Amino acid sequence: MAKKYRNKKNQGVMFRKRYKENANQPDFVGSFTIENGREYEFAGWDATGRQTLKPYVRLRVTPKGS
Questions:
Q1: Is the terminal CB of the chain with fewer CB neighbours within 10 Å at N or C?
Q2: How far apart are the first and last CA of the chain?
């Protein structure tokens, strides 16, 4: 059985989702752990600036398990 991966403190991972069931789902998902050991999950959506037309990723962060 493979060991479950755990983030090191102040580090995390982000993955691009290959398949989305609808357009509202995030393009990226991931998690990170801060210095006190608390874990958070985040979701990211590809976006483009209205005036600059520069690409960026819009993020939403939530405590893990909520």
A1: N
A2: 27
